[in-house]
Amino acid sequence: MSIRLRLTAWYTGILFVTLLAFSSAVYGFVHLYTYEELKQRIVNQVDKVAFGTNGFEIVPSKDSADRLEAADLYMQNYSFHNGQIWRSDNMLYSGLQFEIPSTNNIAKANNAFTRVHLNGSTFLVYQTAFTDSNKLVLWLQVGANTRTIEQTLDRLQSILIMGSAATLVIASTLGLFLARKSMKPIGKVTEAADLIQKGTDLSVRIEYDGPEDEIGQLIGTFNGMLERTEGFYKELEDAYAAQRRFVSDASHELRTPLTTIRGNVDLLQKMWTEAPGERANMDEETMKQISAEAVGDISDEAKRMSRLVSDMLSLARADTGQTFERDPVPLQPLVEEVARRAQFLEKTAEWHVGELSVLNGVYVEGNKDYLQQMLFIFIENAFKYTPEGEVSLDVVLYRGQVGIRIADTGIGMDKDEVPFIFERFYRADQSRGVTSGTGLGLSIAKWIIDEHKGSVEVVTRRGEGSTFIVWLPIIFAPPLE
Questions:
Q1: Distance between the two ends of the chain, CA-based, in angstroms?
Q2: What angle do CA 61, 65, 71 make, to 5 degrees?
Q3: Residue 248: its pLDDT value, please?
Q4: Would you state the pLDDT for residue 425?
Q5: What is the spatial distance between Cα 34 and Cα 18, in angstroms, rounded to a whole number?
Q6: What pairs with residue 394 in β-bridges?
Q7: Is the pTM of the predicted complex or chain greater than 0.70?
Q8: Closest CA to 144 of 43, 269, 260
Q9: CA–centroid distance for 307 within its chain
């Protein structure tokens, strides 16, 4: 059973119980009030009855009899001394006679009401006894026909039953209509969830222009959940795409050194395992020279693979959310140390270092080793892509940040390539095949900058060189001695 039918059933059931209790209360109150009023009217008339004698018989006076008949009451009188029964005219005309209780039941029936059925009608009869010196003299019975009251109560009962039934039908119909209207947005939620289940379109949203009630809050929450799920799904797709690209690029980068190593190993194995007579015009000196070249190639490719694996390990740590401890780091000695060691790097360009004394007393919250690694990545890249010209290092302070600037006059890049240079294994087209590298250095540098809550600014033009400015938030301390 659907929720709307259950709501309608519950509503109808509660309404039925309410109407039943209300109708019963109304009917009971009217029934009690009507009969109590009739009883009070009978007792009041009985108290006003006056008696006289008719020969040796005691009978109500004519005025009393006329008054009771005018009040539509029936009166019967029984004399105990002679056993005669006197009846009012309306009883004589109708052929009615009330039953006289036995002597044993008179005490129980005295001053009490009883119901009797005569000639198809029901009468409410009040009975009272008159005594003289504790001796029963007269038994008076006054009754009223309750047919009109019963008809009125029957009509009231019919009205209550039919009215309650009509109310239930109308209320159930309207309740079902309102339940369907109220639950219609829930149907939209179900349809949207089913559509998402059968497909991959997470852009589906539920349109709702109703009030901000529980249904509105539910739809708002559901739309918010869909929006977040869509965002997570896109991030997951991007992560999967990046992972596939990463694996593909890593496989490509590893294939070349492995091929070179395997080729040289096969050459050495073939050359040194052949019999001396099978070595084609190759003396000992030539074999040593070829072996040295092959071992050199193997060593270079092994170092290249070692650097690649180390870079991939750093990025893997970054992907898993691993971080490093941070401490206040004085920038002047750190940058001076990097500048001193950079002059020993393999290079063909001139190396210039600007004034670094402005860093005196300037601290950053970070990790010294990772900051040095990040600076060496930018400097090595500058040397790598500057076959001739110069590479420079200087610093600038601006609004609570320190900018470490590495500029070169090398081959540069197009502006449309800048958004991709920090992606893994990305290398500008003009550098492919010209310079060695894995394309992971800038990705690692960007991760280190992000971990230090910094940013990097890139200015470049093809054929005119590139400038990288690493901005880091700084803290100030007393100047170094």
A1: 84
A2: 145
A3: 64
A4: 65
A5: 24
A6: 405
A7: no
A8: 43
A9: 48
Encoding tokens for residue 68?
Answer: 């009771």
CA distance 321 to 378: 23
Do residues 50 and 67 touch, judged by C-beta distance below 8 A? no
Give the DSSP H/E element, type plus range, for residue 65.
Answer: helix 62-70
DSSP 8-state assignment for residue 354: -
Nearest to 397 by CA among 458, 441, 465, 335: 335
CA 440-448-464 angle, to 5 degrees, is 60
Instruction: Give the pLDDT band of residue 22 (cuts 50, 70, 90).
Output: very high
CA–CA distances in Å: residue 150 to residues 21, 30, 56, 69, 122: 21, 11, 40, 20, 9
Question: 387 near 425, Cβ under 8 Å?
Answer: no
Q: What is the mean pLDDT of residues 80-103?
A: 85
* CA distances from residue 371 to 73, 147, 367 in whole angstroms, order as listed: 117, 109, 6
Residue 101 is classified by DSSP as P
422-457: burial string, b at 16+ Cβ within 10 Å, e else: bbbbbbbebbeeebebbbbbbbbbbbbbebbebebe
Query: What pLDDT, on a 0 to 100 scale, did the predictor assign at position 92?
Result: 87
Q: How far apart are the C-alpha atoms of 318 and 78, rounded to whole Å?
A: 117
pLDDT at position 186, please?
73
- In order of 49, 63, 67, 86, the CA distances from 71 in angstroms are 13, 12, 6, 19
Amino acid at 457: E
Q: How far is CA 172 from the centre of its chain?
A: 31
- Return the C-alpha torsion angle 80, 85, 91, 93, nearest 10: -170
- The DSSP symbol for 479 reads P
Q: Which residue has the tokens 């089913």?
A: 194
Q: What is each CA distance from 10 to 5, 13, 17, 201, 456, in whole angstroms?
A: 8, 5, 11, 38, 66
Q: What is the mean pLDDT of residues 346-353?
A: 90
Task: Report d(CA 219, CA 213) in Å as an integer.
Answer: 10
Cβ(127)–Cβ(106) under 8 Å? Answer: no
8 A C-beta contact, residue 311 and residue 438: yes
| Cα–Cα distance measured from residue 384 to residue 380, given in angstroms and rounded to the nearest whole number | 6
What span, in angstroms and rounded, lies between the C-alpha atoms of 144 and 39?
A: 9
The CA angle 82-84-86, to the nearest 5 degrees, is 145
What pLDDT is attached to residue 307? 66
Best CA proximity match to 124, nearest among 57, 237, 43, 39: 39
